[in-house]
Structures are given as structure tokens and as C-alpha cells.
């Protein structure tokens, strides 16, 4: 009898190919399929020696080569292609079979697909996979949604190929239907915020403190040894230390300063608006990319008056480290609040601490301080904000003088720090005894009779602004 594959991967571009190799390298016979057979052939020719691959030219062959219940992973371009592949394979499957979508799908699409396939007796497991092509090959962070039943059959395989930190797999069942893709989306949003904050720190050290890229690379290397230790800090020092071979200039100086924003970062902000969760750090990061990418607008505005940074060492390196750490805590606090809000909205029952655990390795935002986040949620699973956890409260208390100095100095020097400053504004907003929202409510009642509530009595009220200005119960 011919050997059957334990799992199959269809879509063999960079991510699918590496995921299939990772499975094969872990001793799992893997069926491989791609729309155009060329990629399948190439994979087996190049990497066939790494494990057991069962190449399939057609969808029927692919399905026939899988043991039951079938586990089929889709790694194609998210959107229409995912639906096309589901439409092609679902009719060939039987109740109890599992389709795993490892692409970057919108969680609402995942919910729709999960429901439609559930009605046909199939499990649909929307799965966030982070770590890029290297992660897919050597161990990504994996965020599977879908039914608990499907996780029983899939979990051991996925945990096996995921990254491990202290022996713990960076993979756990996130929650039903779209929970996995939702968490992956917020992960990417946090990634946007983290990158923006690091970029602001670089800008402050470069234009505020007058340091050269190679020196800043050393500073980041030093920071990587401390509480900021993370993959993003590590690669930042690598990028800053790199010299352009063609010109001999620092690499960072020859790269066009226009970033793109698309997909998951934008979705995170859109969904946060729907849920009413202020993720200002992520939003500022998305908007900063939009601003950078609007070349025409920037060119039209280039001559606007303002201070020109002199690089006169007004900015202290240690202050920037403290501002970066405090702002980063805020960005993560906001992201985790969005996960909790999504979980409440869709009844996912997501364990926030477990998300910190599976982000400790494999993924782009892997960082030392995720251990602290895990500890915070272990201590109080219902923690309203990371900022009120004892450890983070102390950290921000210690960092805030420097944080305020950095924001003030940057503002005076004309260096934009939307991430640092919005994080500080959020922090001050959270801790405020009274917010000017009271005045906003008064304005709304004046022009639209929207009513307001009082601090001293229950009920809703309205002032007769156009009349005798007496108060009436609404
Ligand atoms: P791409 O996103 O570039 O997609 C290419 C693959 O999709 C090829 O296998 C292609 O087949 C297939 N495909 C397309 Br396009 N349209 C199809 C259709 N109508 N029917 C069947 N197959 C179709 O690949 P990737 O960069 O490897 O990413 C795969 C997924 O993983 C994406 O959803 C991506 O967002 C996600 N992801 C990527 C990364 C990353 O770092 N790249 C990280 C995390 C997640 P063909 O060979 O016949 O054209």
C-alpha cells in the first residue's frame, strides 16, 4: 500500500514551500500541490531529500494522498485565491476533514468561510502564521482558530513545527472561528507600532543627538542586551550598520523614505474603530507610513516654516531608551486591549497571557518583555490594562520623566514623534481624574440635544439651550 501523507500543503510560493519543508524535516510525510505544477516539481527536486514529500499534480491526487481525517493547509494569496482554492477542494473532502488557511486572511472572511464549511461538516481553521519565510522554515509562531476538536487533530503537528521558547511551543489554540486570524492581525498591528517607535528613536538619535548610523547601530546593539531585547531591535542594528556597496554610504541613507501601509496594519485600526478601542500607537504608525508615502504632498509642504534640527546633542541616549520602552508598553497594552475587546465581541474566550507566550519566539515581535506580559496576565487574567500591572506601572513610573523630556525636546526641535507623543497622551488620558469629554458632552447637548449624564445623579439630562437654559430630564 502506498504511503499516505499526514498533512498536505497547497500553494507552494515562499511561505507554503517552507512550511511543507518544515513539516517534512520533522518527519511528517507531506503532500504538496500548487496551482501550477512547476513549483511542486521544483520543491521536490530541490528539497526532496529533506523528508517525505508526496507531489500531486491535480486536486484529486492531492486529496487522495492524505490520511483521514484529512488535514489540508492552504498557503495562497489571501482574498479571492483562498475562496477559489476552497471551492476547488471542499467538494472533494468528507465530513471531519480539516482545511487550514495559513494565509493572512481578514478574520471576517475566516468567520464566513468557517460557517459555510461547518454546514458541510468540514472544519475550517483560520491560522495566523508569523515569522516570514525564515519562520515558516525554522519554526514560526502559529495562531490557529477554528474548533477545539480540529485542534486536537492539528495541534500536535502545528506545535511540532512551531518555534519553541524554553521548551514551550509558540502555538496554541487561540479560539473558535476567526480568533486566530484576528490575533494575527493585532500582532501585525503591534508590529507596525513597534517599528514606528524604533524608527522615531533612530530619528531622535540621528537628527536630535547628531549620531551617525554606525554609532546608532551600536546603541541598538547595546539596547538589545537589556529590557528592549527583541528581534526588531536586533535587525535594526543590522540595518543601521549596513553600508551600501554602490555608494559606500550608510544603507539607510540610500533607501527612499516612503513606506507602504496595507493589509493587516490597516485592518487592525479599522477594526479597532469598530470596536471602540483606542489603538493610537498602531494608528499613528499606519498614518506615519501614509504620510511618508505621499510624495506629492510632502514635496508641496517641504518649505513650511519650523525649527531645523541641529543635531546639537539635546537628546540623551538613555532618555530615548526610556521613552522607547514606555511607549512600547503602551502600544502592547493597546493591542492586548483590542484582543480582549474582539474576544468579548465574538465570544472567543481568548487567553491573553497565552498570546504573549506564543509570540515569544518565531514571530516578528518576539521580545524579552513578552515574558513580563505573560506574567502580568498569569497574575490577573482579567487585567484591564498592562499599564496597571505592578511591574509595568513601576517601569513607566521610572521612565516617564525621560519620556516627557524626549517628547518635549523633539517637539521643540521639530522632529516628529507621533508614536512617542500619542503613547504619552494616551497614558495621561488614562490616568486623568477628569477629561475634557465633559465639555464635549456639553457641546453635543447644545447643538444636537444629545443629552448628558451628571456626576451626582442617575439619568440623562438636557439643557434648554434655546430657552431659559433650565435643565430637564431626558
Ligand atoms: P503569495 O501571497 O505570493 O501567493 C502565491 C501563491 O498563491 C502561489 O502558490 C500561487 O499559485 C497561489 N495562487 C494565486 Br496568486 N491565485 C491562486 C488561485 N486562484 N488558485 C490557486 N492558487 C493561487 O505567497 P506567499 O508570499 O508564500 O504567502 C502565502 C500566504 O501566506 C499569503 O496569504 C500571505 O499573506 C501569507 N503570509 C506571508 C508571509 C510572508 O512573509 N510572505 C508571512 C505570513 C503570512 P501559482 O504558483 O500557480 O501562481
From TrEMBL:
Catalytic activity: 6-phospho-D-gluconate + NADP(+) = D-ribulose 5-phosphate + CO2 + NADPH
Record keywords: Gluconate utilization, NADP, Oxidoreductase, Pentose shunt
Pathway: Carbohydrate degradation; pentose phosphate pathway; D-ribulose 5-phosphate from D-glucose 6-phosphate (oxidative stage): step 3/3
This enzyme's EC code(s): 1.1.1.44
Residue span(s) of domain 6-phosphogluconate dehydrogenase C-terminal: 180-466
Family designation: Belongs to the 6-phosphogluconate dehydrogenase family.
Protein name as annotated: 6-phosphogluconate dehydrogenase, decarboxylating
Organism: Phytohabitans maris
The encoding gene: gndA
